[in-house]
Design goal:
Keywords: Signal. The chain is of the alpha+beta class and about 190 residues long. It has a single domain (about 25-190), classed as Sulfite Oxidase, Chain A, domain 2. It is about 20% helix and about 25% strand. The two termini are about 25 Å apart. Mean pLDDT is about 90; it is low at about 1-15.
């Protein structure tokens, strides 16, 4: 099968739309999120041991990565969820694209058995199987209650899901529902 037929078939099957789409532009604003590991599209090179200081401190390693600014995340189709948050026990509206769609932008379509490591600026990291990310419909939230989120609060990006709507998590005490949800998310590693 030549390349054109392959892409056509993939598009028709809906299996790899992001790969067939024209490559997204490089970030023009400050990069908020860097995706490395099992990606098929990159827009930056290797970790710079001199200038990528926070990633060095967090012991990250990569030879290429896909970097996103806020507008690239916000341009993806958004979902809205309304989980009860553990911090105030109240339902809040969170909006942002599916984590799976953010990964697809970097040409990553991890198998259900693959893990993604979601890392926050404070070093907190959660490794979750892709099956869980898909089942929980995890989003990369850009907005809380209609507003962008502060760095110093829960932003700028928060990997989160609708815990109230996932029965096995809703059954748990509220303090045990968000361990897989780093706020101030800045790096995702796709593991094989
Ligand atoms: N960036 C960041 N996100 C985080 C955490 C954290 O320490 N840093 N703690 C996680 C854990 S283990 C839980 S249970 C919830 C609430 O953590 P907290 O009670 O420490 O705020 O947020 C999760 N997200
Ligand atoms: Mo926790």
């Amino acid at each position: 099968m030549d390349k054109r037929h392959f892409l056509g078939a993939a598009l028709a099957a809906g299996s790899m739309p992001s790969l067939a789409a024209p490559p997204p532009r490089a970030p023009s604003g400050p990069v908020l999120l860097t995706i490395s590991g099992g990606i098929r599209r990159s827009n930056r090179g290797a970790l710079d041991p001199a200038l990528d200081q926070m990633m060095v401190k967090h012991k990250l390693e990569f030879t290429r990565a896909f970097a996103l600014d806020f507008s690239m995340v916000a341009a993806l189709p958004a979902r809205t969820i309304e989980p009860t948050l553990e911090y105030d026990g109240k339902p809040h509206t969170l909006r942002g694209p599916l984590l799976a769609d953010v990964l697809a932008l970097a040409g990553a379509q991890p198998a259900d058995t693959a893990k993604v490591v979601l890392r926050a600026v404070d070093g907190y990291a959660a490794a979750i199987p892709m099956a869980q990310a898909r089942m929980w419909k995890m989003i990369v939230a850009t907005h809380l209650d209609g507003r962008p989120m502060a760095l110093g609060g829960l932003g700028l990006l928060w990997a989160v899901y609708d815990a109230d709507r996932v029965p096995e998590m809703a059954a748990r005490p509220i303090k045990e529902r968000f361990g897989a949800c780093p706020w101030a998310l800045y790096h995702i590693e796709v593991q094989a």
